[in-house]
UniProtKB/TrEMBL annotation:
Its EC number is 3.1.3.18. One of its GO terms (biological process) is DNA repair. This is phosphoglycolate phosphatase. Pathway: Organic acid metabolism; glycolate biosynthesis; glycolate from 2-phosphoglycolate: step 1/1.
């Protein structure tokens, strides 16, 4: 792979590889309705995504005054159960994602997913979309235990190790991703088309892409 600067490329899932906000937003709204809260417009659900499912629901409920912990736990469980049944209803890869994965695979680059979703959901969605075989490893928000999800560096290091080591780059859409990459000392590309919690150029990434068409050139110039 003398002509390509990376042995491994790791991808965030929600807002980077996959457009997931419709299914996530519907699951949040399912829980909000059960709890007697007002639902969020699906188009704005992307503002809640990044820190994992629990933070996503907590943000939606806190915006409406909050709730006591026991009731939150019930609604959170209901949301997860609903999402587990509907996580691939509308979820799809971003335009150009598959083509970019094909190009990387043809170069012999190993591919990883590093997400704050539960690993079981991530694997289920990748399976439903027929993408599982493309990735050498999948690290979820719960894979390594408490305090070891993004923005901690551990999931990126775990992916690097599980992919057999070598030079790795990460592609993500939020400050959880760039924070993890900085902490892990891994070069990072920000996906401006995703669910960015800040404007992409403020995410402290080494490069910003507007679509998957920009990915390979960005990796080549990192
Ligand atoms: O589900 C979330 O909130 C975050 O998931 P991601 O790490 O794949 O963006
Ligand atoms: Mg994301």
């Amino acid at each position: 792979m003398a002509d390509f600067p990376f042995d491994i490329v790791a991808f965030d899932l929600d807002g980077t590889l996959l457009e997931t906000h419709r299914d996530l937003g519907t699951a949040v709204n399912h829980a909000l309705t059960l709890g007697g809260f007002v639902t969020v417009p699906i188009g704005t659900a992307s503002d809640l995504i990044g820190g994992g499912a629990k933070i996503m629901l907590a943000r939606a409920i806190d915006a409406q005054g909050g709730i006591e912990e026991d009731r939150f736990r019930q609604l959170y469980k209901a949301m997860l159960a609903y999402y587990g049944e509907h996580y691939a209803d509308h979820t799809q890869p971003y335009p150009g994602a598959i083509e970019a994965l094909d190009v990387l695979a043809a170069k012999g680059v190993r591919l990883a997913v590093v997400t704050n979703k539960f690993e079981s959901f991530a694997r289920g969605i990748l399976g439903a979309l027929d993408l599982s075989g493309r990735f050498d490893c999948v690290i979820g928000g719960d894979t390594l235990g408490k305090g070891k999800s993004k923005p901690a560096p551990d999931p990126l290091w775990a992916a690097q190790e599980q992919c057999g080591g070598g030079r790795m780059a990460f592609v993500g859409d939020s400050s959880y991703d760039t924070g993890a990459a900085r902490a892990a000392d891994v070069p990072v590309i920000a996906a401006a088309y995703g669910y960015c919690d800040k404007p992409a150029h403020e995410l402290d990434a080494d490069a910003v892409i507007d679509s998957f068409a920009g990915l390979i050139p960005a990796l080549e110039t990192l």
